[in-house]
Structure formats: structure tokens, C-alpha cells
Amino acid sequence: MRMRTFITSAALATALLGGSVAPAVAAPAAANGPGVFITNGDRVHISSTPPRTASAHAWWTHVSGPGTKAKVTIWLQMKSGTKWHSVAKNAKNLKSGNGGSARRVVARKKCANQNKRQWRTMIDVDLIGVADSPEKVYTKSVTVKCGV
Amino acid sequence: MSDTGPDATLIVGLHGVLDRHPWIDRVSAEFDLDEDVFSLAVKRASAYAWSSTALTDKPADNLWDHNDADGDWTQDGQVRQLAWLQSSLPRPVKTQGKKQRARRLPVLPVITVLSDALRRVGTIRLTGTHALVPLHRAGDARVELAEVAEWFALADPSGAASLTVTVSALPSANLAARAAEIREAALERTYQHMTVEPLKPADTMTPGLARPLAGVVQAEGLRRALAFRCDVREWSTDVAAWTTEVFADSIRAVTGLSGLILITVSSEV
Q: Residue B124 belongs to what domain range?
């Protein structure tokens, strides 16, 4: 992310993150107050246990407003040439927070070799039953010794 | 653009025996909690402002980028790998016109986060730690080690402990040939508050560690090259972090190596 908001909550998002965000907005059907949430993700990394696998997690944190569950989708992306390609995808309906594996979604892809490649994840948090903006966010790209 | 190289992985593990608080399940049910090492470590690192996983437009200036974390909380009284954390150490941000000192390895902060996480859910008897450290991200720590030495002198004399320290590296590093210099460097950095006596690496036991250690994939090819017996004035997570940093900094200074080495610290069990 960025912090994702309803149309009424841009000011709150700006206040919360010191103006460092460009909140995405959506027009909710019946927003009853500001809605703000945060997308979280860790860096693509090689799992600590064999087999050699590229892996990353995503989750979301509810800050305010409606919505208690979200469909969180994570795409594991590797750069080939100048283009990013999704090589794995997973999605899960999650409650807010990161407590327990049931509140995180993980994407994995077994490495075919140990070539250095650029990796990142693309994450979409879609609040269930609440209109929110469709934008997706990306984790920082990292160099990982994993080619697929 | 990436600002984290492929070998800038830092993996730290805490080993010992965890006795979960009797009220954990009741409170978890009451507040719909399912906390584990991953979630507690992320929360704690954020609370200290050391590392954030929030994906904001302007990324936080993290001491480490969180990769993964887990732990074995089996309640059987055996030594377990209670908590481990895998992270990537970002390259320092370049400030125009200013040459900045390289950051030290965040060993104490990571161990503190893991220790806090464990102590939130129970009481622990620490028996060992392991750290896979990227030496090329290890800034010169001599000043801070000089500053902190007396901290470890101010300890209850009845808490003295004998530790076993091992170091594993790629065979090409030929660390064993520099063992005497590394020992001298470690002694210089501990100001008589730690003794350092060489042991035979192949014969040295580390009963305070539960294997396999997290990071076996990253530690592939590393072989044990050094072992020492270190007497200290107390045994704690702080001492484990201090000991790890003393040896990491000694090896950095003596060998100039880059890449990953594995440092383990084991107490008597």
C-alpha cells in the first residue's frame, strides 16, 4: 500500500501517515464514516527450510470504518528482462491482523535454479461487503537467488 | 530498484524451554487472538520502530526488512527452537555529500524482539542462540562494544555461566587458520568481562540448540571452523547478543570476509 480508504477518509489517512500516502479512494454504496486499512507484506525471500522456495506473506490491518473481513490476494512476481511476471498466486479471506497463519496468506514458488533474479509481490486487499478502491500495492523488489 | 542484495539475509534463532502462561488459551479465545512468533515479532519490531511491514508510499527506514518468523512451542520440557526470524538487511540510504558510517548488525534488536515475543506468551529458560549473519552488512562495532562492556560487568556474581561459541563459514574462508587472531580480537572487545578459550571444533557439543537450525538453506556449504569456551558473568538474551556481535566483529576485523557466517551460542543445559 498504501493506506486504502473510502472517499470520506482521505484526510484521516493523511493525518495518520503524516501526509506520506496517496490514499486510493472509492465511492462506497453507503459509507457510514471514514474507512481506513493498511496492506502489509513481507519481502520475497527463500524459505529457511528445504526445498529452496521463493516465498512471501500478505495480510491486512483494519484501522477504522466498516469491514471485518477481506479477500487478500498475493501474486509472487519475478522479473524477466524488463517485465514482471506472476509465477504464483494465492488468495484467502482473512480477518484483520497477522496473528496466526489463518490471518496471513502465503505465496510460494519452488526454485528451478539459484540464478539471481528480482522478485516482488503484488497484493490486493478487497474488503468483503464494502466498496473500496481496486488498486494493488507492491512490495519492494529484492534480489533473490532463485530462478524459475 | 532493489536495495537488498541476495546475501544480506540475517537469521536469528532463540532456543530453550518455554512454559506457556496458563491463561493464554482463555485470553486468546476471549479476544479472538491466535498470536504466533511471526505476528508477535512483527508487532514488537513495529513498536520499537525498528521494522515495519506496512506498505506505505514512503517506505520506513527499517533496520531490517521482515521476511519470515516461526518457532516450536511444543510443551514437553525439551530444548526447542522457540523463535526464529529471517530478515533482509537493507543497504544504508545514501545521503548526498555525506559519507555515513556503516550500520552495525541489529543482533540485539532482533533477539530482543524474539525474546519479548516469547515472554509475552510464557516464561522461558534460554539455552542457546544462533545467528546467520551477513558480514558485508556488519559495520565496525568496536566503539559500541567498548561502550557496552561494563554493562555486562554489572551483574549478579552468582549468575556466572560458561558458554560454548561456534563459528561456521565456507571452507574457502579458512577461518581455522586465523583462530588465534580471532580469539585475541574477541578478548580485546570484551575488556576482561569474558574469557575466551579455544576448543576443538569437531568435538564441541552444543546441547542448548535444537536442530535443524532455521536457515539450513541459506547456510548450505558452511562448515564449523571455530569453537570457544567463553565464561561470562550472566546468561541472558543480552549476553547472547553481545557474544554474537563480539565474534562477528572480530571475524570482520581479522579476516575482512564478506558473505554469511553462522555463529552459535550454547549454554550448559
A: 9-267
